[in-house]
Amino acid sequence: MNASVSSSVTPIGAAVRRKEDHRFITGKGRYTDDLDRPGQTYAYFVRSPYAHARIRHIDPTAAKAMPGVVDVLTGADIAADGLGDLICGWMIHSKDGSPMKMGSHPALAKEKVRYVGDHVAVVIAETLNEAKDAALAVEVEYELLPAVADLATATDGEQIHDCAPRNTAFEWELGDKAATEAAFARAAKVTSIDIVNNRLAPNAIEPRAAIGEYDSGDEAFTLWTTSQNPHVARLVLSAFVGIAPENKLRVIAPDVGGGFGSKIFIYAEETVCAWASKKVGRPVKWTADRSEAFLSDAHGRDHITHAELAMDEAGHIIGFRIKTRANMGAYLSTFASSIPTYLYATLLSGQYAIPAIYCEVDAIYTTTAPVDAYRGAGRPEATFLLERIVEKAARERGEDPAEFRRRNFIKSFPHQTPVIMCYDAGDYVASLDKALEVADYKGFPARRAESERNGKLRGIGLSAYIEACGIAPSAAVGSLGAGVGLWESAEVRVNPTGNVEVLTGSHSHGQGHETTFAQLVSARLGIPIDQVSVVHGDTDKVQFGMGTYGSRSGAVGMSAIVKALDKVEAKAKKIAAHMLEASEGDIEFKDGRFTVAGTDRSLAFAEVALNAYVAHKFPTSEIEPGLKEGAFYDPTNFTFPAGCHICELEVDPETGVVEIKSFVAIDDFGEIINPMIVEGQVHGGIGQGIGQALMEGVTYDEDGQLVTGSYMDYTMPRAGDLPSFTVGMTQTRCPSNPLGIKGCGEAGAIGAPPAVINALTNALGTEDVPMPATPSRVWAIAQARASRLAAE
Amino acid sequence: MYAFDYQRPDAIAAAAAILSADPEAKALAGGQTLLPTLKQRLAQPTALVDLSRIPELSGICATTEGVSIGAMTRHAEVAASDVVRAAIPALSDLAGMIGDVAVRNRGTIGGSLANDDPTADYPAAVLALNASVVTDRRSIGASDYFRGLFETALEEGEIITRVDFPKVEKAGYAKFRNPASRYAMAGVFVAKTAAEVRVAVTGAGQSGVFLWTEAGDILSSDFTVQAISGLALDPSNLMSDLHGSAEYRAQLAKVMLKRALASITG
Ligand SMILES: Cc1cc2nc3c(=O)[nH]c(=O)nc-3n(C[C@H](O)[C@H](O)[C@H](O)COP(=O)(O)OP(=O)(O)OC[C@H]3O[C@@H](n4cnc5c(N)ncnc54)[C@H](O)[C@@H]3O)c2cc1C
Questions:
Q1: What is the reported pLDDT for A4?
Q2: B30 with B107: CB under 8 angstroms?
Q3: Coil, helix or strand for A201?
Q4: Span A31-52, mean pLDDT?
Q5: Cβ of B3 and A655 within 8 Å?
Q6: Which of A427, A692, A711, B177 is the most exposed place for a label (fewest CB within 10 A)?
Q7: Which of B2, B180, B255 lies at the smallest CB-CB distance from A714?
Q8: Average pLDDT rounded to a whole number, residues A382-394
Q9: Is the pTM of this model over 0.90?
Q10: Do residue A129 and residue B181 have CB atoms under 8 angstroms apart?
Q11: Could you list the residue range(s) of the whole structural domain that residue B137 is in?
Q12: Rounded distance, CA A416 to CA A351, Å?
């Protein structure tokens, strides 16, 4: 009976290979565009070529007569069917108490178009080529209006939405204004900074795609779509847009090739595919090409900020005052309003004990693509601002930036910040010290001298970031305006033969859930990892769930699985007790076996599972047959991953080329389920962070035309642009969830940009280095430096 | 893409006949420029005339003057060719800097020169080396060949068959890549013969590749890096865009010239 535990159990903390990779690497992944439905038609969108125009007239007659055309639909058809607008699901109130001004956002434009790429009509045809041909024949008469492409001057521009004077969606504040003013009044020193956080295009490898299908027999829709949160998509499409009741709308997000936030949102295209499939009586498929992705995927970041930091004589930060203007683009996307507010200003205390903070955020419409969450979502903006101003303050004080940080670190927990968050655990000194050691901070002056001998400018920069992950306690976010709760669900379904399916409301689109979630179950139930399958992304299979974003799947999604596993274990113990003829309290479960305490009488997990379904050995009047348990887990707090990143780089002053010589990331993610996957997440995040700092930047011209509409002009980081990262960990357990997990998905993208720019400003001897710090910009700054030095 | 006919003749004359008969037909070489253009529906040829099965268009051979490269020779072949490397090593180096592996395995020298992108690499070599672009009709000297942005001396339906490069004493190429596209923001090719030094700049000029005569003149009398230390390129005819100002490109051209020289003079 005492067979030893299967060696193939995968413990928590093991760097097992990703189970899903075999499928992906051998080309067997099934993405939305890989699917074809019988009788399928193809949608192609007629998009606005103008940033801002009134639509005088649309005439689809000629297009409808083109070969292969099934139908041409416009905003008028949507209105005639009584469909609702796309919505923004987070209500923000302005300082004066008024609700945010949400401009009408129909899936196909009605009176106006508001950005280049805005959806004017859809052509549905037998082939994609026929749809594209006919799209050219859709006659649209526009009355041009002035574009409002520049965030800095947008409040004085042509009004974009009738409901939003001065193109302002809201003017919001957080923190204690009076206390902050008082801190500034007694400050010994004030450092101020002006920051632009550059706009980014998300660039998931798989572009967005959708197939809508209507079954007239069941009067039910199926929508395959590239979503990070299929249940939320169904809820919005059902309850707000009104495509169909939830029970008549199945949303499937199959394999999804990256999202970075951009696939959270409910866009016009999938809405139209679902709706049109009933109108034309055939499945309707759409896949974005890369140009459409650049135009119409929700962008990220795009802030202009002025901030001031107040310090006392001894160099303690005593106040922080921030005024940010956030670009919302042409419409409020699904969660857009929460990003520059509750996901931004609540992190402005960073790792520092700052007694008073006051932040104002104006959310501004422009005639550009909507802006919403992108990897980090608000937190990179907060971290960039804070870590830049802290660095600058230290330099102005003539102090080592590491020591200035150390003095101001929060050192006892829990710590209540003045901006809502209550940090539960952390050790910022530990990550700083480790990062300084690994980066050989002390040896920097010698390396700098060596670079100087070679005609290069060397710099080093720190970033001590914090983020709030594991969003989030439902009541808390509800009180802040969220339209949804942010719990997660799980169901653990033990089969009679003892293997397991985990149904999760999280959604994997690159994060490796099929491995880490299975690892958790393997470790807990003592069964091999390949006997655990993870099911996600299908509203017909999986109970309602909230999806994956904000590094929440570990902390929240896995906690729900733990809760379900607790219930499975409790019930299995009851059954085992009957089978072993012992009392329930004497049953111990360990290493996959149920044992009567103090005896050698035991049962394997699979034996109990089988008996749960055979149901011969226990009274079914007391214990229901079967072994399947569900759970909904609502977190009690955010989680607070934090860490210290150090970037060291060299500038070639002749060309402005920046070479990153080393990048050290020491992160505290709490407990780690799979260190290999965590490291991969950190690498990807740092890559994107360096991309933001040095390369990426969405640019519109003054007419609102997208200049960076392809990879010819939008610079993505390539492997050769990046050094080999040095990644390490410190660890404090997260006290608020059963696994002690904090989350790691966004840390790199949050921590890296300020580390890079702090290093660059250090190298160049000026605080004024914009992102992206492209070679031409860096060269101009290096030139100015050289003339300055020559003049001295 | 719009629909088009596809033809794959096996002789130059047959290809020329199709192209001459139909001005809307287009030659297809590696497709690295033409196919993306078609995919974006920016061109609508009636027919594509695939040149890949015409034997006379490919191959590299040593000639008494230097090296002759067939129009359909892929960038990767030029980069790897012992014949080219023996004659003009800088030309193999240049071919190896074009795009990425996939582009180099498909793209051709004939296609690149027919297209004459102002940021392409080959034009710098052709102009500095004073090569001849040979077509089914004539031989065109480099100085006559390049006519501006995407404009060449080629007539309607004229097919490049090969490019003849004369051997030179010394040559070098240095390229500053556009961070996004990796095409040249400034690519400088220096070629030294017994008679003169020619310096050609690609990627920077408002009207495509050009000879930097001032640099050539100075280097003709003193072929050293020091000789050009006081030299500057006038930015007034250079491109200015998202990726850099004309002044920046002037600077890059200077730096690339120095690096090209350093690669030769060591
Ligand atoms: C991602 C990417 C990166 C690139 N990077 C670079 C780079 O760094 N540097 C660089 O120089 N180039 C670069 N290119 C362009 C590449 O070098 C192409 O090979 C070149 O532009 C066109 O050559 P092709 O053989 O593909 O021609 P095609 O695309 O087939 O044809 C181009 C044009 O030339 C015409 N044509 C082709 N052959 C002939 C002929 N023999 N006679 C007459 N007309 C002809 C065609 O009709 C067409 O109009 C890049 C391309 C891509 C896709």
A1: 41
A2: yes
A3: coil
A4: 98
A5: no
A6: A711
A7: B180
A8: 98
A9: yes
A10: no
A11: 58-166
A12: 12
